[in-house]
Specification:
CBS-domain, 487 residues, single chain, 12 strands, alpha/beta
Length: 487
């Protein structure tokens, strides 16, 4: 494709920001600031303090309303600028910035890095060049105000967006990544609401810094349309004797968060993999001790916990806590080959859906889906599990399946042919899954992972068989490498 009408959903603010044309320090006079704006043909000037932090902005409208014809050019700009200043991060999705600027009627907005330092300026007219016609309505729906009603509109807009992207021939993994980003952004926005409610209800601010993490498909950025909740909290360390005073705040936060997410369509996890469960709500030191214990004891339940946990990704709060935990896992797993062998053992029966005589393995028990292929259980699950184990074995920190395949290939742990077959298998199977989920949604059926092989073209059936064979071939090699057994 030379151009995609939906490209705006795959771009970041940094892709469209310009250099900040005028930056002035606090204390600059109005006359000096206006002169610089005129000299640079700038519609705004950003005012910063001595540390470079943004303190205000002076726009053309401010000049007209507060300065022109009033002979106050000698006055400091501090009392004439607009504040506080709305900002956007360079790594934020472009569509969110567009929606926010349209809602707040902003013509430009300063762009900052993770530390809040000015790195550029986003102009609405430039950003809109990537969003034409009816897409603006979708952008507005995806960037509603942070209310539960607004967030429900965001969740509802995902299906239509996925449909547009699929019709635009965007590869399914890219759509999954975008859906995951929207879902993870909903986590952040829910937590903003919840933490504000806690303060207003007398609970105060969080007693210690913490990070909220998502696990499973959300952590791999491979979510489909209606994922379950798999989340946890990583807290900064605190004295043991303070637990009774600190933990109640996080229990309340977790309960409010999970209830709110459930109302938005993120189903409560039946297995209790949520921050409401103390197993998934711990300090950073407790998390490390727990993971080390899981690796040592090799009990089946603990191995299953690891399987859920290892794809975690931070979505809120102090990212450094989650990054510290990721570094611990990445360093520790390769030192425990027996643990990885046991992990493979509990997944040994998770083969891709092709059996004897080159026939698909189809559902036999569920009458509603009898004769259908479960693309998750027989496709993406055995592939993602196997790639995850091989990545853990070789100290790969990435969580996404395709990112892990790329990293393993770069390390010569996957051949060019093997990596190519696994990438192609993942892209094709996830494409079929997404297409089927949209069809289920349109038909009013429960959205799932079953596809009727009769609904596929001859070419699609053959391609799916090739994908399943690639997964099983890789799993056979993994079995030999990790266990020393060939069969």
């Amino acid at each position: 494709m030379t151009h995609s009408q939906t490209a705006v959903f795959r771009r970041l603010v940094r892709d469209h920001m310009a250099d900040a044309p005028v930056v002035v320090p606090l204390g600059s006079t109005a006359a000096e600031t206006v002169a610089l704006m005129a000299q640079n043909r700038a519609s705004a000037a950003v005012v910063v303090d001595g540390d470079g932090a943004i303190r205000g902005i002076l726009t053309e409208q401010d000049v007209v309303r507060r300065i022109a014809c009033r002979r106050i050019g000698h006055q400091p700009v501090d009392g004439l600028m607009t504040r506080p200043v709305f900002t956007v991060r360079a790594d934020d999705p472009l569509y969110r910035a567009i929606g926010f600027m349209r809602r707040k009627r902003l013509r430009h907005m300063p762009v900052v890095d993770d530390g809040g330092r000015l790195v550029g300026m986003l102009f609405l007219h430039d950003a809109l060049g990537s969003a034409v016609g009816p897409l603006l309505e979708e952008i507005d729906r995806l960037t509603h105000e942070d209310t539960m009603e607004g967030l429900a509109q965001v969740k509802a807009a995902e299906v239509e967006l996925a449909r547009r992207l699929l019709a635009d021939e965007v590869p399914a993994p890219e759509i999954q990544a975008l859906v995951s980003d929207i879902n993870n952004d909903l986590y952040r926005r829910v937590l903003r609401l919840v933490t504000a409610e806690l303060e207003s209800d007398g609970w105060g601010a969080a007693p210690v810094p913490f990070a909220a993490i998502v696990m499973g498909s959300g952590g791999r950025r491979e979510s489909f349309l209606f994922p379950d909740q798999d989340n946890g909290f990583v807290l900064a360390d605190y004295p043991d004797e303070a637990h009774a005073a600190i933990d109640p705040w996080f229990i309340e936060c977790a309960e409010r968060m999970t209830r709110a997410l459930d109302r938005l369509g993120f189903r409560l996890c039946k297995g209790g993999v949520m921050a409401t469960n103390p197993l998934w709500r711990k300090s950073i030191s407790q998390w490390k001790a727990q993971v080390a214990g899981w690796m040592r004891k090799k009990h089946e339940a603990m191995l299953l916990f690891c399987d859920i946990f290892f794809d975690f990704l931070p979505v809120w709060g102090e990212r450094r806590l989650a990054e510290d935990l990721r570094a611990f896992v990445t360093e520790t797993a390769p030192k425990n080959p027996l643990f990885l062998r046991e992990m493979f053992g509990i997944q040994a029966d998770h083969r891709a859906g092709i059996g004897l005589f080159n026939r698909f393995i189809t559902e036999r028990q569920d009458p509603e889906h009898k004769g259908h292929i479960n693309l998750k259980l027989m496709g993406t699950l055995p592939l993602a599990e196997a790639v995850r184990l091989w990545a853990l074995r070789h100290g790969v920190a990435e969580t996404g399946t395709l990112a892990r395949i790329q990293a393993l290939h770069a390390m010569d742990k996957l051949s060019e042919d093997e990596a190519d077959r696994l990438r192609a298998a993942f892209v094709f199977i996830t494409g079929l899954q997404l297409r089927q989920q949209i069809a289920d949604y349109d038909a009013g059926r429960p959205v799932g992972n079953f596809v009727d092989p009769k609904s596929l073209t001859d070419r699609e059936r053959e391609t799916l068989k090739d994908a399943f064979r690639a997964i099983n071939d890789f799993r056979a090699r993994l079995k030999s490498e990790l266990t020393g057994r060939l069969l």
